[in-house]
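Handover notes (outgoing to incoming on-call)

Open items:
1. Apoptotic protease-activating factor 1: sequence verified, structure written out, both below. Nothing else pending on this one.
2. Nothing else urgent.
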Amino acid sequence: MEEGARSCLLQSRSSLEQDIRASYLMDHMISDGVLTGDEEDRIRSKPTRKEQAAALLELLLRKDNHAYISFYNALVRESYGDLASLLHNSLPLVSPEAEKSFSDGGTRYVQAVLSEGGVPQRPVVFVSRPALMNRVREKLYHLQKEPGWVTVFGMAGSGKSVLAAEAVRDHALITECFPGGVHWLSVGQLDRSDLLVRIQSLCFRLEQQSQEKDPSSSLHRPPGSLEEAKERLRFLMLRRYPRSLLILDDIWDSSVLKAFDIQCRVLLTTRDRSLADCVSGSKSEVAVESGLEEDQALEILALYVNGKPQRLPEQARSIVRECKGSPLVVSLIGALLREFPDRWAYYLHTLQQKKFKRIRKSSSYDYDALDQAMAASIQVLSEEHRERYIDLTVLEKDVKVPAKVLSVLWDLEPEEVEDVLQDFVNKSLLFRDCHHRPYLYYLHDLQLDFLAEMNRSGLESLHTKVVRQYQQRYSQGPPTSGDEECLYWFRFLTYHMAKELCSLMFSLDWVRTKAQIMGPAHLINDYVEYGAILDKEVRGQFQEFLSLNGHQLEQRPFPDVVQLALSQPDSSEVYRQALLQAQERATRGGLYLDWVNKSSLKSLSRLVVQPHQGSIYSACFSHDGTKIASCGSSKTLRVFKSTSGEKMLEIQAHDDEVLCCAFSPDDRLLATCSSDRKVKVWNVERGTLMRVFEDEHEEQVNHCQFTNTRRRLLLATCSNDKFMNTKLWNINKPSSQNTMFGHLEPVNHCCFSPDDAYLSTSSSDGTLKLWEVSSANEWKSIDVADMFSEQREQTEVMVKCSTWSAGGRTIICAARNAVFLWDIETSKKMADCSGHLSWVHGVQFSPDGSLLLSCSDDQTVRVWETKKVHTSSAVCLKRDSDVLFNNGDITVVAADNRNRLQVRNGRTGAVMFQSENQESRIRCTAICSQTSAVPSGTSLATLQGHTRTVLHCQFTPEGHTLITSSEDTTIRVWRWRTGECVVLEGHKEQVRCFSLLTTTPSSETHLLSWSFDGTIKVWDMSSGERLQDLVCHQGAVLACDVSPDGQLFATTSADKTAKVWSSASWECVRLLTGHQDCVRSCRFSWDGRRLATGDDNGEIRLWNVKDGTLLKICSRDNKDAMDSLHGGWVTDLHFSPDNTVLLSTGGYIKWWNVEKGEALQTFYPTGANLKRIHVSPDFSTFVTIDNIGILYILKKVE
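Apoptotic protease-activating factor 1 structure tokens:
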């Protein structure tokens, strides 16, 4: 900085520190590029206004001439005219940096003139728009001989101010046309008092500059009224600055502009092109296009990130196209990218999602965010016009409409509509295509996006209004004129009707209400029936949500639809709506959980239906693929649509469980068989019984199947009979036609090959046999049990069912709860699909082979996409897991189904480490709380000593000791680094778990162990000494928990009781009775006042620890369709830190209000039988794994 300028700053320092508000000035200085965001933050961190001012001046003294000029201009713009006058005489002519800035035509003289006049310096990031700039200069040259007005107008953020400042940065223009100078005044939205202050500041500046040139002239007192200010300004502009240019930036109101109607030369920038109509004199105007050319916009982004346009990521081009080159948006995003250069995708997504509030201020622009800039234009409209402008939300992007269309919408004459639209056009809120007659009107994409976001809740009613107004105008018939209006209705009326329908059908509120009253099948059917006129992507998202959760929506009490929807993919509209509702309800105390790692999972099921109460033993497609029939323990036969699950027919079919159903080749008949040993044939259309076969099978009939062709209609049945267990029937004859001999155990399933030449039978003897239909001779036998060697070691493998693919080369088998696809020729497994929670009883391909159907004891029918199943080989986790919560990080460790150890990131579910396959099954895992690094796979120690399976392991808090318990009835305490071991022996049966017991903070930690032998034992871990041996229960001890203060511990047992024990006297102080089943789990509250216990019937009881009284029973009145109150055993319990909420796991996860005993929320996992849940210390994150190996990381919605 020049010495004169520095001295002037130092001399004026005390006055400046006393008066200025640094925060007002810094925005301008950041825009000029002389101040960085970090410097601004440091100054703003000062506690008082005066300290902020001092810090700004101290920083300014270390900068150059450019900074001094920027500071001076900021004072002028913020109406510190008296302070600016202190610095004026020492203004440097130019700085080396400024010299470079003006290399395109500016000179030292130009810079001095513009600096004196307060014209903003060129932005740090600047791209020239020569065509526009030349048009403005051309208009300014017209003011050379006489006063007049040049209006530069355009929509918000189109770059009008930068263009105006750049246009006068020309030596020839100033010397020839405006030798008296160029004077800049930022106006904006002002009331009369603020306007007076602005004109006073301008007059003061002009008088001061005049006095410097002519010392004989004197300064006047500030004008006291607008009229006086207008006259003073007229005198100055006509007498002292007769050939000067006054630039009025950002004019909003004609009453403001009239204050400057003083017969001088004026350049004004505005959003309203009609403002100049209110003033006298010659007028010309320049329209500023709403967007930059793509190359110009990319150049701006490149300058912000210090790169080259051709090297920008692909998202850069997408950002420019999304905002259609809006200079404001490009500049705002560019400035944000300068601070966060890796956020290209984030800011593109923000634009696409219309989250304008996130595109926030990082320069001296007048509005804090893009949405405020756009809203300001709308606010200046009259209330009536504002409402009509919001109605334009219904327009589609890039569609131009004639005024007559809007005359229908607003019920006005076309001429009245044109007057309204002209006002919008004048204010740059609407664009007009003048190449057509009549004129066509359209909105910029940003304007339309902003309106849509602002009016999201009212969009449905607007589209409804369009449709109703059209129906009212054209009640006698559609328009036939063939003009633009007529063509619009024929092209877009269906769009408005579809939008009206979409806003209804794509609403979670509608889904909740209709599903509760009508059931989910009717909803799914709506999406199928009206699919052609609905948005394909969003329709698919809602249909998938209902298809996969329909069985939950059949439950009573009715589940929370918002919580169910939070399990949908993050990109889904279903999830977006659910998250907004959850966040809003969370502010009112609601509890919702977001499944944060769900993106790593893909559901293979296409439809899940719960057509019966109880197990479903059979389900089959009709041959045309439009219907599905199902039957089960409810003794009923049900037919429903395959697309939606909507019920078409229901029959009370048998006196006992209905084990199978099958369609005839023409879909007119349905056969059923039952535990009552009968086979029945039904007319599908009428629902009437046609024939009964009841004499030949002596045991229950497990399966029935028609031939696939009508050429020779036969029905095959198989049963639990010892020898004559497979039969063929002609339905027109009373007795069987043939019997197959070969299986010595019950035959569970039979199925014809596609050409009806062979019949396959699946038996409990572990074999699959193929028979020739014509001769009833055995053709081939496959020992399926050999393919399930692991399961066979544990229990006999029964082949439950099989079915052929359309080509006859593939066969499906079901065993236990899994479905397997096998290649007949190679006998190799092609794929498997997990999802059912219990035994699978039936599988079948759809007629075209694209879908696969399965039914199960879990009460569901699942429809799978065959292609997806064929390509799936998903890795699933075992339920024995451990989780470490550490300073916001979450680490999950568990074994997978391929016997590998996995460590996963608990925020994303991503695999951080995966071991090699282990020889022995990994049964339990533990992670040390002292760990600091991601596991490398290096084995640190192998500890040998247990003789049977290790059931549980746990590190002590300091991490030096590992404790393990085993089926061999022992507990071992290891110094794992050295291999030293203390063996704790005394239990007579397996030790499934243990706990550390510390009665006081200073006392030694003991070990508390429990076993199926009904005892609790207390150990000294150092010596191995058994300190206490308590016979607690008559049955196995299933759980134990130590109170937070260590003074008590609780035990639960298979004898249906729970007990509370004193760790001082080792005596039972409370016996808790009342559970009707094994008490599986228990947990003390953090204040030690309550104890929660859960049993195998799903019931949870809350007890008063002090006196043993029962406080509440959870779930008593909420029994669902499952046999258990909780969808399974209650396996784990946790209290929140404030003891107001209880978390429980079973078949699903529930959160309870402790005081009322009422459910606050339920999360339904894909699988079931949750074994344990890990809870973060702040009770905001929950981690568990279900029985089919899916990891759930649930985060409380806030």
